[in-house]
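## retry 2 of 3
previous attempt timed out at serialization; input unchanged, resubmitting
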Amino acid sequence: MNVILQLLTILGSLGVFLFGMRMMSEGLQQAAGSRLQKILAYMTSNRFAGVTSGFLITSVIQSSSATTVMVVGFVDAALLTLRQSIGVIMGANIGTTVTAWIVAILGFKFSIGTAALPAIAVGTVMLLIRKIDRDDLAHALIGFGMLFLGLSLLKDAVPDIRNNPEVLEFLAHYTDLGFLSFLIFIVVGTLLTVAVQSSSAAMAITLTMTFSGWIDYPTAAAIVLGENIGTTVTATLAALNANANAKRAARAHLLFNLFGVVWMALIFGPMLGLIDRIVPGAITNRTAIASHLAMFHTVFNVLNTLLCVGFVPTIERFVRRLVPDDAVADPRSYHLPYVRTGFQDTVELNIITARGELARMAEHVQSLFSYFLELFQNPDKAVRSRRGGYADQLALVERMHEEITTFLVECSREPISEQTAANINGMVRVSAQLDSIADTSNKLIRLAERKFEKDIQLDQKLMEEIRPYTEMVTEFLAFNTAHFDGRLNEEEYQRAQAMEDRINKYQKRYKKATQKRMRTGSAVKTEMFYLDLLRHVEHIGDYSLEISEALTQMR
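## retry succeeded, writing output
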């Protein structure tokens, strides 16, 4: 009975720790959500910037699993290239070592209660005083306190090995098998990380077991290496239903960590000796051993990155051979790529992915309008033969609208910051207007087809009138698409209003001219066709202004 109670106490302590980590991660994501987009933009410059970005994002959100799965989602959404993603993944592996240092320094060298309970108190006061209006930081503080409170409970729950010598006898059967012992504990570390869905949480458990004397320093170091392999499983699972490049990014993550474990296995003993010389304090000291493990974790990931960062193009070519290109996708099978990390929600990161998908949706919508112009001006057989491809594109836009809107509504039900809520509302509006533009473009395409089929002839003057009118709409669509990565400021919004005003004035002027021509005996069929065309194009201007309005509330 005592054993069962002790086990439940350990699990409960671990639960408090994981809950605190989740709350802290969510709070930090909410606080940094708008900045993550800027860091993402920095990712695109070169592989070294990618490493830095991966390190920064993981340090902020305290989860390499969340970062790497986010990267898989970004590659799937074409926000990152495969080559850029590999550098970010390398940086994420370094970023995850920050948690180990926080736990090693604060968790085992100081009285945790002195920091945990005051952090929870301050966070709670911030939540209760509505004027402060910083729920994101309040959740981060409460999560920080819960994390270390859980770690304190875990330390107390794990029995001291001096009172349980039989555990050492049990472990002795596995620690004296030479290289086989090394392999066994790598597998243990991998399974532990998969079980808790967080390498940071697995690292904290390993540090606690080492601090309590359950495992020795070499065994703990082998488990840490296994945890680096285990953290790749989440990204691999996330890529199962993604495109080929996303699968390649997940495969690159796995190969990168496997390669690191292989070369570390060759110098494992000397490396442990080097860490002993670098870090002060003997490994027999329970407090010092946590710093030794944190340093081992950091040195391993930094060295592995330094060894591999120069070979990113080679890694890219290799994973391209491993994972073949996708077959032509059915538009009806489209699914929004978003981050799933098991025990952590990553709403703020998913919002960035959804925003990137909206930009892709806008590009498809622009293509539909461009196809209408081409078909209207030159309805020859070669142009008309591409109609089927644009029908698929219309189906894809409709599917994207459905998936993105459903996902954003689900995100709105989660704990999110006010700015994220504004971003979600804006993106829902943008998605709806893009879908309306796609529908209207399809109506225009059918009008262009009818012009050809019914042999409706527009004189040269009318064709010249239509050209600047449609060019303004094309410019408006491109203007909005160019601003999907940032907020539309007041000056830019005034420019959008000016474009919509010009479109309206053109439409009214040409409409009056058409009515005048009809009164003087012009062909009714031709003029009615022309009025239909003017009306639909003007509607696209209205929808575009709605998008600009929505972009003003997004950051």
